[in-house]
Amino acid sequence: MSEKESVSPILVYGLLILLALIWGSSFILIKKGLLIFSAGEVGAIRIFSAALVLTPLSLPKLKSLNKRQWKWLFISGMVGSFGPAFLFAYAQTQLESGITGVLNALTPIFALLVGVLFFKGKLKLRDSLGIALGFGGTIVLIVAGSGGELGNFNFYAIFVILATLCYGINLNIIKTQFSILTPRMITSISLVLIAPLAGGYLFGSSDFVNKMQHDEGAWLALLYICILGVIGTAFALILFNRLVKLTSPVFTSFVTYLIPIVAIAWGLFDGEILVFGHYIGIVLIILGVAFANRPKK
Length: 297
Hints:
This protein is mostly helical. The chain has 14 helices and no strands. Helix 3 (about 40-60) packs across helix 11 and helix 4 (about 65-90) packs across helix 9. The two termini are about 15 Å apart. The model is unreliable at about 145-150 (pLDDT under 50). Keywords: Membrane, Transmembrane, Transmembrane helix.
């Protein structure tokens, strides 16, 4: 928790719950967007719409940045937003939204590992147990077949694992590199810096414009993804970065305890089915996160 200000527990946990509701709903929005658009188009629309909304906030601040801040903000945008937006969309072309939401719970485990390997963090015995349980649950979850047997390895889960690794890296970057920048600056500028990449792909290399002109349901799908971009990316990242600066990377990633609950609820409401192997994997992952995130005395 920041030494510069006294933080109300109500504020901290309120932000945590709000983030869980927003991000837990992201996976069903991706699923609805994929009914019309390709995975690449979904990722690009998500980033571009978020950056478009945040541009007015970022422009007045650009001149105040030095070269080092420019570099780290671009890296943060690529690792914390651009990469995961595309990776999650590609994963959900073959994964149920609820299962993707559960795999997203690996974020605090990767936050811990990255902190230990690259940011001088320390690994305790319970952390090691949490990591082992988390990855064991992941293996069970991604090989659980439609009949509940461990036999059908779903390689698309690897995209989610890579996305959560990106989140873990970004958590530590925010905490260690942006001590003098506000959460709003971090979010808005990092997204605006990567927006040209998303826009270039969307309007120059994809079939987005043609689909908007001719495909029935395209406007509704666009609305879903824009909600995902504006609320689930732009607004939520401001809240997320604020929470990181108020607390710690591992505490902030505690939001991933709650995200699977919201994601699974949406998935079940939309007709998705969980089999026995899925439940085993879910329990192991949540236990792993609980051990890795256990508060130190």
